[in-house]
UniProtKB/TrEMBL annotation:
Keywords, in A-Z order: Transferase
Gene Ontology molecular functions: transferase activity
Keyword Nucleotide-binding: no
Pfam family, one: CoA_transf_3
Name this protein carries in UniProt: CoA transferase
Transmembrane segments: none
Signal peptide: none
Amino acid sequence: MTPTSLQGLKVLDLSRVLAGPWASQLLGDLGADVVKVERPGAGDDTRHWGPPWVAEPSAETGPQAAYFQCANRNKRSIAVDMATPDGQALLRELAAQADVVLENFKVGGLKQYGLDYDSLKALNPRLIYCSITGFGQTGPYAPRAGYDFLIQGMGGLMSLTGRADTEDGAGPQKVGVALVDIMTGLYATIGILAALNHRQTSGQGQHVDMALLDVQVATLANQAANYLVSGVAPKRMGNAHPNIVPYQDFPTADGDMILAVGNDGQFAKFCAVAGRPEWAIDERFASNPARVANRAALIPLLRQTTVMKTTAEWVAALEAAGVPCGPINRLNDVFADPQVQARGLLQHLQHPTLGEMPLVACPIRLSTTPVRNRLAPPTLGEHTQEVLAEWLGRA
């Protein structure tokens, strides 16, 4: 069988909900043996976050919310009560065998169980221990609980998302998925892999401290740079771009489309397709800085033009001319898209009790050590005996 990138790596996953499980799922996708520790009788909170359900809750499987399935493939589940001395002792034994421990409890929350970094480092000096919290291990907010929605507000993202204050429906908006959790999971994975690489040469483990607020601020990207250079806090602009014009949604004869003009050459090509070549040489619109400065004059002209054709007609004509554009798809359109289908982004895994289960594929494509979907998201405690036998040699 083709080897995987992280084959042989053992991950003890004490995290729940989304940021931590997203990181451990990615490690599992890359081939690590991820053991998910869950509370007996309850499991990860997201098992209960339905409907929709993959299957109706039953005595055999418990709740199986669709939400849980998005972040827990390629893992094995064990049911351990860490509130008991026996459970704590068992988890310490497993941590002694692990390469990575991942947790997202409040700062200091695992110390009472002897499962904090310092306690486990004493048992396993090579351990990579990743903590994911709202605000990190230090600073005045460290003791606080942090949630994606809260961090989107505190970290500035909601000040940039939503209609402009001059438009109907204005006001701050969160992103439609828990993006801060997901980005934190991705950064956590990068931090873990960096620590593992360092261990290869030093033999030393280390603590990876990840904070949702840190990640949100770090990923403000060009908006943060715009503020730091200008001293002016950006405002909500709906779907418009602060630095590029035209780069937003436009109405068509039967809906809407995205027009993403990234340079002056593309703008000239758009003008030719639109039958308005004079715009490309108009000093108000000929360069991107000029278009940004004269946004208020250009956008209404574009809107009057784009409504003259359907979305499909614009997409066909503009793609042929090399102008980036596209429809605004609902999810049913996304999964019916021929490019999405060609890339295999919808996959099915066979679940031991629930049958065939649809999942979104991992997007990483590796030529030599490809990602493999080995395990469907587990039922609660499905692999307890199996893991104890393999990791600890217990019959």
